[in-house]
Amino acid sequence: MELPAGWLAGIAVLAAACGMACAAALLAITARVRQRRDLRDIVAAIEEIRSGKTRSRVELEPGSELALVADAVNRLGQDVGIRLQQAEHADDGLRAILETAREYAVLATDPDWDIRALGGGAPTMFGWESDALVGRSLSVLFDDTGWKDILPKLARRNLREKGIEGRYGLRRKDGSTFPARVTVRPTRPAAGDATGFVIVVQDVTAETRLEAELRASEERYRRLVEGLPAAVAVLRGGLVVYGNAALGGLFGLSAAEVAGLRLRDRVATSDVLVFQDAVARLERAQEGESESIRLTLLNGGGLPAARVRAALTSARHDDEAVVLAVLFDETAERRLEAELRHNEARLDEVVEAAAEGLVVVADAPSGGVVRMTNRAFLEFAGLEKSDVLGLSEDELVRRLTARGEPGRSLAGLILSHPTDPARVRIEAEDGRAFEAMLAPLRGRRGALDGRVLVLRDLSATAASERSLSASADALRRGKEELEAAYREMKAEHEDVVRREADLHRVNEELRRLDAMKSDLLASMSHELQTPLVSIRGFTEMILKGRLGPVNAEQTRGLELSLRNIDRLIGLIDNLLALARMEREVESLHLSVFPLEPLVDEAVELLREATTQKGVQVSREFADGRFQVRADRDKIVQVFLNLLGNAVKFNRQGGRIDILVQRGDPGFATIEIHDTGMGIAEEELASIFDRYYQAAGSPSGPRRGSGIGLAVVQGILRLHGCSIEAKSRLGEGTSFRFTLPLAVGPAEESPSPRESPVDSPPAPSEVRPSEPTPPASTQGRARFRIIRRS
After folding, report:
1. What value, to the nearest 5°, has the Cα angle with vertex 665 and ends 243 and 637?
2. Which of 380, 358, 362 is nearest to 371 (CA)?
3. CA-CA distance, 584 to 119, in Å (whole number)?
4. Is the pLDDT of residue 172 over 50?
5. Staple partner for 125: which of 18, 105, 174, 387, CB 3.0–4.6 Å?
C-alpha cells in the first residue's frame, strides 16, 4: 500500500526530530558524566588540601562549567602548600631552639591545665618520659607549697591573660624537689579566649645556692665588721649609711640610731673643717685612695667623748661613691701614756726618798754614763745632782776618789765591773759603816745594759739590832705572861665545852620545833587551799552573773573580795613552797627551754596589773637567744614574784626594765629594775630572810609578807644560782640573778639535786586583778577552779 506524499514528509520530519532529540539527550548525558567526573576531581583535591597534602593541579577539559572552581582549588592548593612549607620551617626552627635550650623545660597545656606537649629539657629536668607526662595535670610537677602558691594566681583571669612569672618549688618523678623560675603565658588565636597555656621552667638550684652563699658571705662579713674593736662607718654625703656596734659605743647609740647620723655633728668644732675637707676630697677621688686624720669626737651632750685616729678610704657602695671610715680610739692610749709619765714621776719620788744611796750607770758607745742617782748617794759623796747626772763613769770614779778613803773603796768597786752582784763594806772616818753592792743591769735578751750601785747605811741596822734585842727580851716576858693566860684560857675552854653541850641540846630541841612548825605550816597551807579555791570559784561565778544578776555595788564588792582571795591564795602557795624548801623535799623537773618566751609569758600574766598602775615594761636580750636548763614552772614563779613586787611597790606611771645577758661561763644574768620607792641600804642584807618585811621608808610601815623573796632565793639555790639586790630610797630597786644555760640536747639526765617528790603544778591561766599577790599562785588557783567547774 502506497502512503500519501504528505505522510511520508511527516514521517521524515518526525524521524529527523527523533534523531535530533536522541542526539540532544546523548549530549546531555555526556555533559553530565563529564561534570560529575570534574566534581569528583575537585572534591578529591579539596580533601587532600584539608588533610594537609598537596597534589598536582586539577585539569578539566576546555569549556567545563567547573573551570572557575578548579582554578580556585588549584590556587588554594598552592597557598596551602606554601603555608605548610613555612609551618614546617618554623616547626623545625622551634624544635632546634628547644633542643638547643636544654636548661629550659617548655610545656603546653589545655585550658584545664592538662599537659598536651612538652619539649626542651623537660624530660631530663623532671625525670619523666615525654609520653608519660602528656595528659597529666600540671600539678604533678609542683610540690605542695609551690602549687598552693601559684594556684590562686592561675585562677585569676587578669593574671592568666597578662601572664605569670615567679619562683616556685617543683617536683621530679623520684619525689625530689628543686627551686625553679616559672613563666606562664596564654595561647590564643587572633581574638578570643585562650586555647591553652605555655609554661617555661628554668632550674635555679645553682642560682639559689649562690644567693644563699652570698647571703652567708654578707652575714660573715657583717659579723666580722661588727666584731671589730675599731669603729667602722660607711659615709655617703657625710651621712652614716652603715655603722658597727663599736661606732655606736663611741656615742652611746644603738645600731638604729647610728644609721643616718651626720658624723660631722659629732666632731669637735676645731676638727670639723679638716674632717669635711677630707671626706669631700675622697668622695671625688679614685677608689682606694686613703687619708689619715686625728679628730676629737663629742657625745650627745656636746662634751668630748674620745680622741680618735680616723683612717678614711674612698670606695664604691651601690654604684655610688662613699667613704669608708675606720676610727681608732686613742683615748685609752693617751691615758696610758699619761699614766706612764705619772708612774715615772712617782718612781723618781720613791728613788729620791729611799734611804739607800742609788747610782745607775748605763752603757753607751763612748763608755758608761750616769743616768740616775738619789739624795742619799749625793749626801754620801758630797756632790750635787746637776754635777753627777750625765757624767762619764771615769769622771765619777775620779770625783769619788778625790773624796777620801770611803770614796776610793766605792770607786774600786765600780771599776771592777763584776758579772754577778758584788758587795763591799766601807768604814767611814766618822765611825759610820756602809755596805755597797754593785749589780749588772741586763736587757730583755740578757745583754748587759749597765750597772746599778746601791749604798746602804749600816748604822741604822746596828740600831735596829739593838732594838730587836730589846724586843726579844720583851717577847720572852710576853711568852711567860701568855703561858699563864693559856692556862686560864684552858679552864675557860672547858667551861665553854660544857656550855656548848647545853647549847647543842637546846639547838636540837629548836630544830625539832622548827620541823614541827614547817610541817604544820605545810599542812595548814594545803588544807586552806581547797576551801579558798572553792570560795574563789563561787565568788567568780556570782561576779559573772551565773547565779543571778548583781548590781554595780555588789560587783565592786565581789571584785574586791576576789582580789583579796587571790592575795590570800598567793600567800598560802608561797607558804607551801617555803615549807617544802625548809623540809628539803622540793624537787626539780629539769628541761631545756628558750628564756625569751618565758619572760614574755610572765609579763603578759601581769598585763592587767601593769595596766592598772600605768607601769611600762621593757625587755632587752643583749646577746641573742638563750636556752636555759631548769625547772620551767619554778623559773616562771621566780619571774612572777620579782615582777609582781616590781609592780606592787612601783610608783604610778613608773617603769620596769628587764635585761638578759650572758654572765659567767654557763650562766645567763637577768636584771629586773623598777622605779619604785626603793629599800633602805641597811635592810638589803635581810630582805631574803623568811618573814622579813622591809619598810617603805626609814619611818614608814613594813610592807609585803616576807615570803616571796625567800621563795625566789630558795628556788634559785636549788638550781645552783644566786640573787642579789641593789636599791636606793626614792629611786628604785634592782634584782640581779643567774640561770644555768643549756649545754646539751633537750633531754638530759636528771640533776643529783633532784628528789623524788613532785613540785607544785605549773600555772595554766593567770589573770591577776592587782599587783599585790604573786601571779604564779593566782595562776594555780584559777587553774583548779576551771578543772572543778
Report:
1. 95
2. 362
3. 77
4. yes
5. 105
